[in-house]
């Protein structure tokens, strides 16, 4: 069925944009996929329903084209039957899904276009561009190799699924991706293209018939399965390719091959270890997560070994083999006993194949924790290196060595653990446990100095294992006991830092050492084998961070602990809660200042400070482009090390497609190389810039807090003008949405993710810009527009902040938000909406002044067009959500068909604006 007037093929002038020739394939893909979506809708829901979708789409586009008000569009969706409302939302959301995919595939196409042009400059941001830039800056080969040897880049996947796509839908999306990539260069025959369209249509139809959300709230095991998809099925495959690209870049630029290097990329996870506010995470989930991760990585290795066994079929009658290979075969046959007898005797003349099959049996024994298994990844690496040496010594470098080297890279990086598992707990939970164990009910109320002194005294003495009859206390001790039990089994590399949320004093880190010893997680000398990482989350806590870390390094017991951990101290920086606490500008500046002060402190004390960036997906949670954020970091703060959280929809956007995951890791590593080898030179204007930034931060914080935290009407307004009551009921993650109970609890009790998610749903995005305009306006008035525009142009930190705010402003739709605001009632709307409107205009005006532009995103044409083309499709879903919210609340907020229709609008808006929490 051909549908030239379907969801993506309309002739309206809104679509008649002048795309460059290089983007024409994107236009073709969007048109083709949109037509397929239309056919699927008509096939599944009927021609009449499809025509209603089309009518609504045309009305939305007409409104945008002619600048009409929202009344006609709102009237078209008000009071719709629930099944039709949900169907409309799913129709537009399906369209967003295919457009998002088309745009991602086009990024791959553009990258290939760069790679095809051998004489052109390398693609900006890639490893070849970074290495070329370093050589041009005077970095010698030996200096570069030394730097690469100490690189540590570690994305950490967290259980914050504001967009946790179901595994079944991920697999259907992957089928669409494969079909689009197969025709990336338009080289398919007509018959092949018809088959591709049939594959896509099958995936879309099957996806239409699959519910987007699970019936039950996900468990920790479900969250682990979700994260494992990216770790085990995307990153596992591309990791060796990353190293090959780096080696090729260095050899291309310097004319010399890279020597053997340690792993550069590592990966971490919070799933099963993040206990902060989640009663479902503890000792048992830590053990279950480590076991599941090991099972997945060993399964992947067995698959690779089986592939190698089919590849390395060299016969002793044709080529020699290292005698040690033959001896190892004999050793393993004897060790494995009966299990080895099942191997085929007709392969006896193929020693590599024999050894690889025996290695598979050893991996099976490893997973079963049998004696004949490997004790750790070192044994597997030794076997692989033995085969590699034999191949190279017997002219086999082009007879399988390449595939073997890829597996070596994987084992070096993933070990037998796949990803390090962090542990995280709130400092207040530790204080409650210590109050019980020390028989001091007043412990949490005692001063930080008093608690630190008492803990130092305890740690300096004989502090042994303890237990408690109080369940909460024993739960804390059980975690440390479990870590002690699991460490010999999984190895030290399986365990990430122990993060202390809401860290405010040295006592909060000392508490971890004391509780670890009470739980039995210490060696004979009382040393605790954990990196304790204080997490500073509010602006005030970030300001106090240097003082807190200094106090820790002055404590003899903790200083000895740091020395035992290799003279390093991990510090986690909280982007989300600091922005919720004081607004975006104050948060970013507090984090920047903390890094500057902590770097200086570390240099003074001879301790390497390792920063762990707790970033989210949205701009108000630190979600800048990683490459730009690294370059904008203070001088010396990167130092070859980058550890950052990956959350929510960011995981899917960055790591859902292998080629884009590879590009993301390339950009990240290139930025770390550049920031470490040749950081920005000292800037004489920076003292003046810092003074201006302090003014912006202070004024923006004052305005933000006056509205969000001090305005008595704000919380009831927030709860009515956003769909927060829907979001709190979503079955998104295992962790509760609130830290404290109570329907009218303040903003402080709400977690940062639903807080940001709620304000992105109503198209206001208040969390990312409120207060910023006042701060910018104050600085422009005090310093002058010329000085501030220069600062926005030449200071990467400030330029990144302004760009992030500009992007969010471009996605903000005040007229749509006004409809949400009216849900709060006439009095609240009249009191608070004008303040939001005025600050939004103030922010927009200031950003345009700083940019010297007439419209937002004037310098980012692709993003501007992407937002422009999506808006007409998001608008009806937003207005439908307003209508459904009104009806649902009037009915008493039941969890019925009305609620399920609302959930569909939440998913649809999130897909359209590509931003959640």
Describe the structure.
The chain has 917 residues and is mainly alpha-helical. 64% of the residues lie in helices and 5% in strands. It has 38 helices and eight strands. An eight-stranded parallel barrel has the order 1-2-3-4-5-6-7-8, surrounded by eight helices. Strand 7, helix 24 and strand 8 form a beta-alpha-beta unit. About 2% of the residues have low confidence.
Q: What kind of sheet is the major sheet?
A: 8 strands, parallel, barrel
* Separate helix tally: 38
State the shape: globular
Distance between the termini: 39 Å
The radius of gyration computed from the alpha-carbon positions, rounded to a whole number of angstroms, is 29 Å
Let me know the average pLDDT.
Answer: 91
Compose a concise summary of this entry:
By secondary structure, the protein is mainly alpha-helical. It contains 38 helices and eight strands.
How do the helices and strands line up, and which of them pair or pack?
Elements: H1 24-45, H2 47-66, H3 71-77, H4 82-116, H5 127-136, H6 141-149, E1 152-157, H7 167-182, H8 190-208, H9 220-254, E2 268-269, H10 283-311, H11 323-336, H12 338-341, H13 351-367, H14 377-393, H15 401-414, E3 420-426, H16 427-437, H17 448-459, H18 471-490, E4 495-501, H19 506-518, E5 532-536, H20 539-554, H21 556-564, E6 568-574, H22 575-582, H23 584-605, E7 608-614, H24 626-632, E8 641-646, H25 648-655, H26 658-677, H27 686-708, H28 714-721, H29 724-727, H30 752-761, H31 766-769, H32 772-783, H33 785-794, H34 796-811, H35 814-822, H36 826-851, H37 861-890, H38 897-913
Parallel strand pairs: 1-2, 1-8, 2-3, 3-4, 4-5, 5-6, 6-7, 7-8
């Amino acid at each position: 069925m051909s549908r030239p007037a379907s969801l993506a093929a309309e002739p309206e002038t809104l679509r008649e944009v002048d795309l460059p020739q290089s983007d024409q394939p994107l236009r073709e893909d969007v048109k083709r996929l949109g037509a397929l979506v239309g056919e699927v809708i008509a096939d599944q829901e009927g021609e009449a329903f499809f025509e209603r979708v089309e009518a609504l789409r045309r009305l939305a586009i007409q409104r945008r084209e002619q600048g009409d008000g929202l009344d006609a569009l709102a009237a078209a969706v008000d009071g719709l039957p629930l099944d039709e409302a949900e169907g409309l939302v799913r129709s537009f959301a399906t369209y967003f899904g295919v457009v998002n995919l088309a745009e991602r595939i086009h990024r791959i196409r553009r990258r290939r276009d760069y790679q095809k042009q051998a004489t052109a400059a390398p693609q900006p941001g890639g490893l070849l561009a970074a290495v070329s830039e370093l050589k041009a800056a005077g970095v010698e080969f030996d200096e570069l190799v030394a730097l690469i040897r100490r690189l540590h880049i570690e994305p950490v996947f967290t259980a914050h699924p504001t967009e946790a796509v179901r595994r079944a839908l991920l697999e259907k999306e992957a089928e669409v991706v494969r079909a689009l990539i197969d025709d990336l260069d338009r080289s398919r025959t007509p018959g092949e293209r018809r088959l591709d369209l049939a594959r896509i249509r099958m995936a879309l139809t099957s996806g239409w018939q699959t519910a987007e959300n699970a019936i039950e709230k996900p468990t920790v095991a479900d969250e682990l399965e979700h994260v494992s998809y990216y770790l085990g099925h995307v990153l596992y495959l591309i990791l060796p390719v990353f190293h090959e690209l780096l080696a090729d870049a260095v050899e291309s630029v310097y004319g010399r091959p890279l020597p053997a290097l340690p792993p550069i990329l590592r990966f971490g996870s919070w799933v099963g270890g993040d206990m902060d506010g989640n009663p479902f995470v503890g000792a048992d989930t830590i053990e279950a997560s480590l076991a599941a991760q090991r099972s997945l990585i060993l399964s992947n290795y067995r698959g690779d070994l089986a592939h190698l066994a089919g590849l390395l079929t060299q016969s002793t009658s044709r080529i020699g083999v290292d005698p040690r290979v033959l001896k190892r075969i004999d050793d393993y046959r004897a060790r494995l006993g009966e299990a080895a007898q099942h191997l085929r005797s007709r392969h006896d003349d193929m020693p590599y194949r024999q050894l690889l099959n025996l290695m598979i049996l050893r991996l099976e024994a490893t997973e079963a924790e049998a004696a004949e298994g490997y004790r750790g990844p070192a044994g597997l690496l030794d076997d692989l290196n033995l085969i590699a040496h034999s191949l190279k010594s017997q002219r086999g470098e082009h007879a399988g060595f390449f595939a073997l080297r890829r597996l070596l890279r994987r084992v070096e990086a993933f070990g037998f653990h796949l990803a390090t598992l962090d542990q995280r707990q709130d400092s207040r939970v530790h204080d409650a446990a210590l109050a019980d164990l020390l028989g001091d009910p007043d412990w949490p109320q005692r001063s930080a100095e008093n608690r630190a002194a008492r803990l130092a005294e305890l740690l300096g003495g004989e502090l042994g294992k303890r237990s408690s009859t109080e369940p909460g206390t024993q739960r804390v001790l059980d975690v440390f006991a479990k870590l002690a039990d699991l460490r010999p089994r999984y190895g030290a590399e399986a365990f990430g830092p122990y993060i202390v949320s809401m860290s405010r004093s040295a006592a909060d880190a000392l508490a971890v050492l004391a509780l670890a010893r009470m739980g039995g997680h210490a060696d004979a000398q009382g040393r605790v084998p954990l990196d304790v990482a204080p997490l500073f989350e509010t602006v005030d806590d970030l300001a106090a961070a240097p003082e807190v870390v200094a106090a820790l390094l002055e404590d003899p017991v903790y200083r000895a602990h740091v020395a035992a951990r290799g003279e390093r101290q991990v510090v986690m920086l909280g982007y989300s809660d600091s922005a919720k606490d004081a607004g975006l500008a104050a948060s970013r500046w507090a984090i920047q200042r903390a890094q500057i002060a902590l770097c200086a402190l570390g240099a003074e004390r001879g301790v390497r400070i390792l920063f762990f960036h707790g970033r989210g997906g949205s701009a108000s949670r630190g979600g800048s482009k990683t490459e730009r954020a690294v370059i904008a970091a203070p001088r010396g703060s990167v130092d070859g090390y980058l550890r950052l959280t990956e959350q929510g929809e960011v995981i899917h956007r960055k790591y859902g497609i292998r080629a884009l995951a590879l590009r993301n890791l390339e950009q990240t590593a290139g930025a770390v190389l550049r920031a470490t080898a040749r950081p920005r030179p000292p800037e004489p204007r920076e003292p003046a810039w810092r003074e201006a930034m302090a003014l912006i931060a202070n004024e923006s914080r004052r305005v933000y807090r006056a509205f969000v935290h001090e305005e008595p009407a704000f919380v009831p307004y927030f709860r009515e003008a956003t769909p927060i009551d829907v979001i709190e009921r979503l079955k998104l993650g295992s962790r509760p949405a609130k830290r404290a109970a109570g329907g009218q609890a303040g903003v402080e009790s709400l977690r940062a993710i639903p807080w940001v998610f709620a304000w992105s749903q109503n198209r206001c995005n208040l969390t990312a810009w409120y207060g910023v305009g006042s701060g910018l306006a104050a600085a422009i008035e005090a310093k002058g527009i010329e000085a501030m525009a220069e600062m926005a142009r030449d200071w990467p930190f400030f330029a990144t902040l302004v760009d992030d705010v500009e992007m969010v402003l471009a996605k903000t739709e005040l007229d749509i938000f006004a409809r949400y605001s009216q849900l709060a009632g006439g009095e609240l709307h009249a009191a608070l909406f004008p303040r939001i409107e005025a600050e939004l205009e103030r922010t927009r005006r200031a950003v345009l002044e700083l940019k010297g532009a007439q419209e937002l995103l004037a310098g980012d044409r692709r993003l501007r067009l992407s937002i422009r083309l999506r808006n007409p499709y998001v608008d009806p879903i937003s207005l439908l959500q307003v209508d459904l919210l009104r009806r649902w609340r009037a009915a008493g907020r039941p969890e019925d068909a009305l609620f399920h229709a609302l959930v569909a609008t939440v998913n649809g808006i999130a897909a359209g604006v590509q931003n959640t929490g």
